[in-house]
Amino acid sequence: MLSKRVSRLDASGIRKVFDLAGKLTNPVNLSIGQPDFEVPQAIQKRAIEAIKEGQNRYTVTQGIWQLRQAIGQRLDEEFGVAERNVLVTSGVSGGLVLAFLCLLDPGDEVIIPDPYFVMYKSLIELVGARAVLVDTYPDFRLHVEKISKAIRQRTRAIVVNSPSNPTGAVYGRAELEGLAELARQKELVVISDEIYNKFCYDEPYVSMAGMYERTLLLRGFSKTYGMTGWRLGYASGPAQLIEKMAMVQQYTFVCAPNMVQWAGITALETDISEQVEPYRRKRDLVYEGLSKAFEVRKPGGAFYIFPRAPKDDGEEFVRKAIEQNVLIIPGNVFSSRNSHFRVSYAASEELLRRGVEILCRLAG
Ligand SMILES: Cc1ncc(COP(=O)(O)O)c(C=O)c1O
User: What is the distance in A from the centroid of ligand 1 to the CA of 250?
Assistant: First the structure.
């Protein structure tokens, strides 16, 4: 009954964790990929108003001009390029689907640094293309040399995700410039997933979009404003690509939710630094705690940390953690390796302390 395309899809890694988790009462849940703060009041209020004003129907597929203009203005301020092409999407996930559909033919290849956000590989394979993983262990940096070696005739694009899910790595200017130079030479598109750009703790955020003209920039509202369920994001990049993505959106998602687009304008005007600041502290707490018992890199952003598991067996360690009521995710969900595990620190400090203590104890 099912297509070959979907029969190859496998969600077993995460499913196993959640099957086990279903049996727990009140777990120390460090598996969640969304912030633990509420959507700021002003944004909530604007969404409710918009519903009451009757903003409940389809919008134009590319998104209401008021939101696109507000996004464009901010991008111009950040990158100094006028007339940006902006498409409002149903989250960054929506942008990824459209991007892969528009960029890839069956048999094409896309390079992704490993570990990677789970969706990339599955979506690339869904459109019949191949995800070429470039191993970045143990430092999780952007290894331009290795990426260069992975480029072949059918390579079309490279995905970068900084700050990264699951490692928290943040790429610096020099690394990104190296990649831009390579991509320019090989005429490749860089898909830059910047959904965690506001969660960057040690240095000003550097975007790929400011350095390379063939960058498809994807940003979202989900993580920044705690509105993961509202489904709002945007894409900006080469006109030809954005136009086609809009066309495909018309035949798939149609548009991002109307009332959410209006609230998105308010979100862009909302200072979120007070909500984000505690995450630096949480990062420090978790990093300092875990580094006593695990080999671990200090994450510079997002809200994840990716330590190495005892005996290089992430699945086994996660099973043990779950027996102790702590929920974490095995590294092989995000990687071809099973040597690590992901901890999300989007949780209260009290919960983080408990979780870190249990994990350290388990490490022996
Ligand atoms: C790296 C990365 N990209 C994209 C997404 C999807 O975000 P959205 O809610 O905007 O679809 C996530 C969500 O976890 C993510 O971690």
Answer: 21
